[in-house]
């Protein structure tokens, strides 16, 4: 006699039993995960003190953008008569939110390194106010970056377009805030900020790099600027440019951590897409032009043009073969 197919009710009961069987494994998995947090082999932060939040710092970045470019990233109308109110509201919120995150970073560092009490609450608020005092200067610096983008990109139709939509400017904006905090000696927070910019734009600028005014990154995807890079004024980079370190042996990290490992780019240099410039002793002289896909590990004098010799192109296919025959006849 043929076996009767399972009814819908029977199928549901069988699915419930299967799910229950797998769910029974969860307590054992949880116990194994708990043990992994106490054996010292893996990384975790289990303790009474929280650490900085990536989500909170992302929100702070957006709030800072509303101060650095007032009127651009808000829904409501901003006019002269309510400008002071707007700045006051945003500045107060940033002070409270950012000082909390900086305090968490400082306290985490104290606990991790068993340091004596540094009065983290006071230091966090002082650091936040110090950054906020620099906001007018950062606005002026970023205005020079916006103008450099407009002057350097014929596709740009307006300053508004650049502020709203250029990933290079977004990465530079976050870098300039993160760099200020880096210079103030704030741990962890600047790196979280810069890695948010990296994930959002594909542009990786270490907050320790020193970058002058009127800086323009065109297109930007794949640009890497290392920690000890020094960039002068009015420098322009295109996509895929790497300003990096020479390859290091495995055990060299601790020895070279505080040494200059990345190149120096002087004023008015243009570096085209795909170029790679490596090494802490490498200096690209002022007003030089580095062509696409160039690989440099040595210095270049000022007013120098470096390009790759035009490669030989090989054409294949029916159309190419017919062209060869016509040329030979």
Short description, anyone?
48% of the residues lie in helices and 9% in strands. It has helices at 8-23, 26-36, 54-68, 83-113, 120-133, 135-152, 159-165, 167-183, 189-201, 253-256, 318-328, and strands spanning 204-205, 210-211, 216-217, 224-225, 230-231, 236-237, 242-244, 264-265, 270-271, 276-278, 283-284, 289-290, 295-296, 305-306.
Any overview of this molecule?
With 329 residues, this protein is an alpha/beta fold. The protein folds into 2 domains: 48-203, serine acetyltransferase, domain 1 (Orthogonal Bundle); 209-247 and 257-329, UDP N-Acetylglucosamine Acyltransferase, domain 1, CATH 2.160.10.10. Helix content is 48%, strand content 9%. It has 11 helices and 14 strands. 28% of the residues are buried.
Task: Specify Rg, calculated over alpha carbons.
Answer: 27 Å
SS content category: alpha/beta
Mean pLDDT: 89
Strand order of the largest sheet: 1-4-7-10-13
Number of separate strands: 14
Please provide the ordered H/E string of secondary-structure elements. Answer: HHHHHHHHHEEEEEEEHEEEEEEEH
- Can you identify the CATH superfamily of the largest domain? serine acetyltransferase, domain 1
Helical content band: 40-55%
Question: Which residue ranges are poorly predicted, with pLDDT under 50 across at least 5 consecutive positions?
Answer: none
- For the record, the CATH class of the largest domain is Mainly Alpha
From the 3D coordinates, which CATH architecture of the largest domain would you assign? Orthogonal Bundle
Please state roughly what percent of the residues sit in beta strands, choosing from under 5%, 5-15%, 15-25%, 25-35%, 35-45% or over 45%.
5-15%
| Most strands sheet | 5 strands, parallel
Distance between the termini: 83 Å
- Enter the CATH topology name of the largest domain: serine acetyltransferase, domain 1
